[in-house]
Amino acid sequence: MSKPRKQSHSNKSDSTRPEWQLDPALLEQTIATIEKRPQVNPEDFNYSSLTRKVYRIEYESKLRELDGEDLACMLGQQFSLELVVPLSLPLLEKDIMAAGYYEGHLVQAMTSIDPSFWRSHPALWAKLADLIEPHRPLLEDTASIDLGVFFSVLPQQG
Length: 158
Description:
Elements: H1 31-34, H2 49-60, H3 68-77, H4 81-94, H5 105-111, H6 115-120, H7 122-132, H8 136-140, H9 147-153
Helix pairs in contact: 3-4, 3-5, 4-7
């Protein structure tokens, strides 16, 4: 699977929506449709349970149908980050320890994203940093979450 071409999915003309939020019309589409992926044979994704899951997420599920486990899976693979990161933020806003495969998996996956993505998307980084900061002691006590790398990517806004 190739990584998608870089494209913006925010609507710059909608000044009422924060820069980090997706255009709501995208929620009714699949990742494959939004990223203009070529149609593929589902049998080509039968190598493992992971490839079958990624196929389902990318080609069969509308964005609004994706749950924490789906999002953590895509984040872990570093796939479709411009869509998956903004979808993950509201879940973390409700519960910073939102589960994927385990409690805190979603925030762990978000903070493990390649720093180059965050440098290219400072509004998304700032939103996640704002969500993490009040919970930092809890998250730092969670062994699998290394906030040092995440917070070293960009200087604190403020």
